[in-house]
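Inputs:
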Amino acid sequence: MAGRIKLRVNERMHEVDAAPDTPLLYVLADDLQLRGPRFGCGLAQCGSCSVLLDGAEIRSCVTPVSAAAGKSITTLEGLPDWYAKQRKLRKAPALHPVQQAMIDEQAVQCGYCFNGMIIQAAELLSKNPQPTEAEIRSAMNGHLCRCGTYPRVIKAIERASKTMAAALDDSAAEEEIAQEIRAAGAEVAR
Amino acid sequence: MSARARDERRGANRQAAGQGAQGVALPRRDFLKAGGALVIGFSSAGILADALFAQGPPQTFSAPRSGAAGPPDPRQIDTWLAIHNDNTATVYIGYVELGQGSTTSLLQVSAEELDFEMSQVSTVRLDTDVTPNQGGTYSSSSIARGSPAIRTAAAEARAALLAMAATKLDAPVESLSVSKGVISSRFGGKSITYGELIGEKRFSLAFTGKAPVKPVADYKLVGARPPRNDIPDKVSGKYVYLQHVRLPGMWHGRVVRPRGQGAYGAGAKVATLDESSLAHIPGARVVRKGDFVGVVAEREWDAVRAARDLKITWDMPATLPGSDGVYAAMRAEKTADRVVLERGDVSAAFSAGVHVAVQTYHGAYQAHAPFGPNGALADVKADSALVICSTQDVYGTRNTLGGVLGLPPQKVRVQYYEGSGTYGHSCYDDVAQAAALLSQLAGKPVRLQFMRWDEHGWDLYGPAHVGEVRATADANGKIVGYQYDGWHHNWSAVETSQQLALGTPAAEWRLGAAQQVNPGCCGAMYDIPNLKLVNHQVPGLGYLKGAWLRSPLDLAFAFASEQTIDELARQGGIDAYEFRRRNIKDEHWLGVLDAAAKAANWQPAPPAANVSKEKVVRGRGIGLGTHLTSYGGAVAEIEVDRETGKVTVKRMYGAIDAGLAVNPAFIENQISGQLVQTASRMLHEEVTFNKTNVTSLDWNSYPILRFEECPEVTAVVVQRVNERSTGAGEEVMAAAAGAIANAFFDATGVHITEFPLTPPRVLAALSRS
């Protein structure tokens, strides 16, 4: 029977009226009108409904909404903020580096599977920042694409891995400069 | 191929290619002469009322046009484009975006003629009240058929704008030039923009098609590689797919059908239906018309559960041949036979030939299986209806919906939203009819989402095929005789929803590509003096529903035909690439053959010259073939595990000649996808069925290629700027299928005679040899 369930989605709290066995997908798509997770099979076979639950990719089409209560759900729309939080960036970028890399590689065809592709790749790079091609293929193997975009998706993930590493170098350099400025300031104060 | 052969091929193709949804034959390659007058298009009234247009993908509809149903009048410039105050244009396109980039390409064409930048042009969604009727988005023809009309309309609009500017600027037209929609005279003085001249106003000009188009040498945008305009929204989660659309006050619907279709025409009859079985879901309602059964509910999960829990039993006859018996059944049918192409005397050639190859090949039923199952929304009233769906042909779908709902087609408005890739006629018409029926029966707007098993189980599959090929070559490696006999059934003409609800008898198309043995895959690319192609049309009732699946039947044709060519090469001790070069005259075919071989760094050796006894053996193969009017060549490199029977495609190279490539980058992406999808179809894809119904209902029972087994791919576009654009969305798949089959032969010395190349089939083939 329906009841009120509190959900944390993309760092915002929502309260929804839903039977506890309702798959999370229907709540995200219908109640919260999110466009990232989308129906593909309802059987956890394809990955079109993927979201991050506490940072790990899950299939929202078979996850009861009750199992997501009290946890942090991140959808495609929330990836830039999720990335900023992980990297302790002051401002979230417009797109997660994986999203940007998919544009740069023009990897998309119909694009319907790209929700799952991007969610899974973001999780992969958060845990393994510099995966080999074999590791990418293995991590992505549960995501299907009917248009045949796999080769470009692999290239895009490799590209995102590089841009994220470069961004880390940048932020390390920034931190170094900031420390120098603080040290200089302290010296002046003395 | 000689000019004569090319003409023959085109002639044979024309019948297959030219028909719209109603089976009306239209000439295709001659459809619009470059710079000539347009033929079909859309209307003018009301276009300028809409100011909704933003740059980027077509995420908006135009405002409704003054109550008039389309199609708009193609003989008006206003039908094709509108100029806005901010010096931008909306271009009205009659072809749907399916992720192939054709919308961006057609905007390139229009921006080129208007001397606009890409950021200044956009389009709107297809809508039978707004956009032109350019025919359905079939046969990879958006650019081939769409660009001439859009190019000439833009050129004519530009000429009209220059004439207006000449008056306003008091300068001779000949002195004017345009950059980014700003017109200025080489004599100096003021300049003026398109927007200032006519922003939000109508041209009110007849479209004559007579304005000169820009010379190819002056192209800046056509042939360039601007990025697709839909990709940013598709990766950020902003893009609105059909599956995201909601209507005010709508309910969610699901259809209730047997899991997996039975024989086409045999029907599925409701035996028992117990509505009380849904007592535990008070929000759900059962609706029924004839044997069409569905459920509707305010909450989507209630509709899903209701469809799952409804107690219903069906009567379905056990009359299918089963996937194991389908080829024998087809071969035993009394068929309608047609000689597709004949030249010379094939029988005489065989008595003179030195090398002879004869073999029978089989190709399985395969599914469109869109990654997101089809859906549709409908709001059906007593005297009108709105249906939102992912059809490839909004006007064709409008006509059939009118029949199902009992409304004049003009009272049905059909709007297009992109769903997931469809690769031909998947369930988009069936789901649109089902949504309309649910709405009519429930008296509410309804959103219907097919479940995975609905889509996999009730598809109009790419038909199974039997091909018998025999060919003969002389001692110099010249092919002198060739005959192809092909068996398959035609496309199905009546959708499941209509059959179930109204009892409309099943019927097949009268015309159709399925009455075809495609010369572009079956020998006609070679210069063979004695050649005969025969189609044996199997009566389709009693088999599975069928329709065009990307490069329809071509994979089966090329699988059979290209292996036959390689067998002749082997018997002559000649390298397969060299053998093909010796037998081709046509520069287009030579172009794609050379391009694929060069990309693959092809090294000469006869096929199967070095078969190893290792556990894992490697081979490479080359193939030619196409869908209709373009040219495709491919090379594949594969591994075969002789103990497990597993085949892995390691690398693929594909080359297309599609005339003028408006955006070569998009075509490269299309080639890449075609190669991967062909590997999937050759290795994995097979619709399975027993005597009663289809049993491949999801991604486990109908597996497709995954990341871990995906080949590396190389795409080559043979650019021909002075030739007419032809299709590029499916034209390398046949070649790639032939290349994979030949690579298997090269690796193992065995011709594999049935696809997909699943481990049991491979092991059986290896043990037979």
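Confidence is low (pLDDT under 50) at residues 1-59 of chain B. Flag for discussion at group meeting.
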